Task: inverse folding
């Protein structure tokens, strides 16, 4: 029934917003800037919960063959780049600016598809891509709290997100479900981030972290891990219950809501020019969603 679809979408939107706010709180307010440990913890809990749910039959997961796992490893590399660079960027960039830069992953995906698959593009979609690219280029010049290293991590993040999105759609070498793909991502991430924790100095730095004895810190870390897993469940359920275009609509609405609420929760420095970049970027994203809707009619 239609009302059930709306409930699923609202649940997805709620988890999406709270998940980003929780991650932002731990990374920025509590200043836990050790992404190998933070993301390693999230992916470890996600892997445990996903394998447990698969074992109990709560989610549909088949046995993953070695060949299927190996064929998905490039996607897992991109997933690790996505979450690691995303944590680095989100720790110092306000949520509206972060989403504005993240939108540029659509530009990355567009370029890859154009170069590799020669797909035709509607003028409406091309207009949206141009607006997103323009706002991302102008934002560093307008952001009153511009930080070079944070924007560099944001670029790594959007490159990973855009490449992963294309790989997920066009990789036909393995018939893996969404849960199976994410299970490989989780397990590979735990392994890779655990190896990187000591060389990057995150492990030793975390031992001296001032808030290590704080209940707020542990609650925030636990909540972030659980919310990440719930977001996966909500995303897959929404994708299976509705079309991909409807999922894009709910993601867009969730991001807009999160940007509207974030100044009431986190401190932000903004000006008219930076807000204009945010608005232009999401007008461009709205055009992309609308053009995808037309192409599926």
Result:
């Amino acid at each position: 029934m239609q009302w059930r679809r709306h409930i699923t979408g609202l649940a997805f939107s709620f988890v999406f917003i709270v998940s980003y706010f929780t991650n932002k709180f731990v990374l920025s307010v509590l200043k836990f800037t050790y992404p190998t440990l933070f993301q390693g913890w999230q992916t470890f809990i996600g892997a445990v919960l996903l394998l447990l749910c698969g074992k109990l039959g709560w989610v549909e997961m088949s046995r993953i063959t070695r060949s299927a796992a190996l064929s998905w490893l490039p996607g897992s590399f991109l997933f690790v780049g996505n979450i690691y660079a995303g944590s680095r960027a989100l720790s110092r960039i306000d949520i509206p600016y972060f989403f504005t830069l993240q939108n540029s992953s659509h530009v990355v995906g567009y370029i890859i598809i154009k170069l590799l698959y020669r797909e035709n593009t509607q003028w409406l979609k091309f207009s949206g891509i141009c607006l997103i690219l323009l706002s991302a280029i102008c934002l560093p010049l307008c952001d009153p709290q511009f930080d070079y290293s944070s924007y560099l991590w944001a670029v790594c993040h959007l490159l990973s997100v855009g490449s992963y999105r294309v790989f997920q759609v066009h990789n036909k070498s393995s018939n893996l479900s969404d849960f199976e793909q994410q299970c490989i991502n989780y397990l590979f991430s735990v392994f890779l981030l655990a190896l990187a924790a000591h060389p990057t100095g995150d492990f030793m730095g975390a031992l001296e972290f001032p808030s290590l004895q704080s209940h707020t810190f542990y609650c925030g870390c636990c909540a972030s891990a659980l919310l990440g897993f719930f977001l996966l469940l909500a995303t897959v359920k929404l994708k299976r219950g509705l079309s991909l275009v409807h999922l894009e609509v709910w993601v867009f609405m969730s991001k807009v809501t999160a940007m509207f609420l974030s100044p009431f929760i986190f401190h932000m420095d903004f000006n008219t020019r930076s807000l204009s970049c945010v608005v232009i970027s999401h007008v461009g994203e709205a055009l992309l969603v609308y053009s995808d809707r037309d192409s599926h009619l």
The chain has one domain: 32-295. The chain has twelve helices and no strands.
